[in-house]
Specification:
Residues 231-601 form the Exocyst complex subunit Exo70 C-terminal domain. Keywords: Exocytosis, Protein transport, Transport. It holds the Pfam family Exo70_C. It is a single chain. The protein is 66% helix and 1% strand. By secondary structure, the protein is mainly α. The protein has a two-stranded antiparallel sheet with strand order 1-2. It is rod-shaped and about 155 Å long. The protein starts with a helix and ends with a helix.
């Protein structure tokens, strides 16, 4: 046991060292930092602090207690300055190139394509690689490495970066240990949180995370927000899996086992504000005004946050960080609600789409293109939406009795997923709306052509998307194909029956000993009627448009297979009766070849003036 005299000498020596570095009394102490000096000077000062603390625990003399208390206050003020200086000197912002992750390590249990949704649909893989180059480094002990080079430790999708060199961490821990043991935990935590929060804020800026309030975000135009959402998704992955995880690791290295949950207190002090700022963006999107164009970015946000949620739970697992976990989970719920609400509103918008001007030429209606492209994109998110859409459409019943709503018996579709029922319902109400628009045409033929164009487009879009076809299923696709065949047949009947009717034999034959058996007058009238009807059909339907090349050719062939043989036969039977009279060219206007050539003009969508010029040439 140390003698009282030796103990007093040791205490006096320690006090002298402490007072020497009192920045309030010494200009030298103000100009220099202990931990910027050599190791021996650092160790000497820390030993002096330890001696003062021991003396406070062991001495019973009032004078000694007072002197030690004053010395410890001076020492703690000095250590606080040293702690702050060490943190600031290593508080450079995280660089985007440091925020790297291996996409193969990202949890993707929800759907295999989740990690590629943003890159495949909204920006190229080159863009992604420029933002986050995939860097794989070993988790060695760092010996022989430049202290400025971050090392990486990977746990599933979380990748921790050493934000501060190991030697500096050791110094910070030695200071924190003495401040906490002296009862200065609050001061230590506040200094740490203040400096590191500034470093996190700088990292946010480097990663493109903006300081925007919920109100600021909701006032932005959607086109601007789309770009910000894409950037936010990339930044959020880096913030949670790298930046926040690395901050937590740093806190543990400095404060682990120093006091009660001091590391968690420092971590929350550092990142709670930035984390709230980060998630406020997704929250603002989740509660913004709903409209169909927002669905896919909301689903991107939902997928990103859903994939991040296990990492958020892991990084913010302490009780003091519960509010961050709760906020993230609530935002995810609101994003899901927003997606369901938008889908429902989209269905209603398709049903009520009000345009009353028929599209020229009976071509594909813009609504058809929009709706089918929209639900094709919906099918790209089928794994997410199958989880989110849990109830069938709220409208559409065979017994609804509402003439403004199509009849649909969902019992016929038993066993389908709710998402499948919603997509089928959208197609049903699209057809219903198109049926109404077809009645805007005064000519039945173009009304049928309009429906043929649009139903064909619907069928082809389903066939062209494996995911959409899987959701729609072949039995409903067969119904659509049947509908197409029905309107195609209706077109042919409404257009060509009256033309072909001119080529019948009935009414041409007469009886009598001096007759050839054919009434030339009736025959001339029949040819004139055919010419007139065909001219009219040709003049009008050359201005109509079938945009699908294959469908256009198939319909021409179908018409040709009925018209050309009938005309060739009629011409063969009765040509001689016309040619034996005067001015046969007045009645036989078309050769078979002329008809075949004229049919090539059909459904090209020629302007009327252009078509007239073509026929006059």
């Amino acid at each position: 046991m140390e003698s009282p005299r030796n103990a007093a000498a040791t205490l006096e020596s320690a006090e002298r060292i402490i007072l020497r570095w009192d920045s309030t009394a010494s200009e030298e102490a103000r100009d220099r930092m202990i931990f910027d000096g050599d190791r021996r000077e650092i160790d000497t000062y820390l030993t002096a602090v330890d001696e003062i603390q021991r003396s406070m625990e062991s001495t019973a003399l009032a004078d000694d207690q007072s002197k030690a208390s004053t010395a410890i206050q001076i020492a703690m003020a000095r250590l606080e300055d040293e702690f702050r200086n060490l943190l600031i000197s290593h508080a450079g912002p995280i660089e985007p190139d440091s925020c790297v992750f291996d996409p193969s390590s990202v949890s993707s249990s929800r759907r295999s394509s989740a990690s590629s949704i943003e890159s495949s649909r909204y920006y190229s893989e080159d863009d992604v690689s420029r933002e986050f180059d995939v860097v794989q480094r070993g988790a060695g002990d760092g010996e022989g490495e430049d202290s400025s080079t971050p090392s990486y430790r990977s746990t599933n999708s979380i990748r921790e970066i050493d934000l501060i060199p190991a030697e500096a961490i050791s110094d910070l821990r030695s200071i924190a240990e003495r401040m906490i043991s002296a009862g200065y935990t609050r001061e230590c935590v506040q200094v740490y949180g203040s400096v590191r929060k500034s470093a996190v804020d700088a990292g946010f800026k480097k990663l493109g995370v903006e300081k925007l309030s919920i109100g600021d975000i909701q006032r932005l135009e959607w086109e601007v927000l789309e770009t910000k959402i894409r950037r936010w998704i990339r930044a959020a992955k880096a913030c949670v899996r790298i930046l926040f995880a690395s901050e937590k690791s740093l806190c543990q290295q400095i404060f682990d086992n120093l006091g009660t949950a001091t590391d968690e207190a420092c971590f929350v002090e550092t990142v709670k504000g930035p984390a709230i700022q980060l998630f406020n963006f997704a929250e603002a999107i989740s509660i913004s005004r709903r409209s169909p164009e927002k669905l896919f970015k909301i689903l991107d946000l939902h997928d990103a946050l859903s994939n991040l949620l296990p990492d958020i739970d892991a990084v913010f697992q302490s009780d003091s960080a519960e509010s961050i976990r709760v906020q993230a989970a609530e935002i995810l719920t609101r994003l899901a609600e927003a997606a369901r609400g938008i889908l429902s509103e989209f269905e209603n918008a398709v049903l009520r789409e009000p345009s009353k001007v028929p599209v020229p030429g009976g071509t594909i209606h813009p609504l058809t293109r929009y709706v089918m492209n929209y639900i094709s994109l919906i099918s790209d998110y089928k794994q997410t939406l199958i989880e989110l859409i849990v109830s069938k459409p709220s409208t559409g019943s065979r017994y609804s009795g509402d003439p403004s709503i199509p009849d649909m018996d969902f019992a016929e579709l038993e066993g389908r997923s709710p998402l499948s029922l919603h997509l089928i319902w959208i197609i049903v109400i699209l057809q219903f709306n198109l049926d109404g628009k077809s009645k805007l045409y005064k000519d039945d033929s173009i009304a049928h052509l309009f429906m043929m164009n649009n139903v064909h487009y619907i069928v082809q879009k389903i066939k062209g998307s494996p995911d959409l076809r899987e959701l729609i299923e072949d039995d409903f696709l067969k119904k659509l194909t049947g509908k197409f065949q029905q309107v195609a047949n209706s077109y042919q009947r409404s257009t060509w029956v009256r033309v072909l009717y001119c080529l019948r034999d009935e009414g041409l034959h007469v009886s009598g000993s001096f007759s050839s058996g054919v009434s030339k007058t009736a025959l001339r009238e029949r040819f004139k009627a055919f010419n007139s009807n065909f001219d009219e059909v040709h003049r009008i339907q050359a201005t109509w448009l079938i945009p699908d090349t294959q469908l256009r050719e198939e319909l021409r062939i179908s018409v040709s297979e009925k018209l050309i043989p009938a005309y060739r036969s009629f011409l063969g039977r009765f040509r001689s009766h016309i040619e034996s009279g005067r001015h046969p060219e007045t009645y036989i206007k078309y050769s078979v070849e002329d008809l075949e050539s004229a049919l090539l003009d059909f459904f090209e969508g020629y302007p009327v003036s252009q078509h007239l010029r073509r026929r006059s040439q």
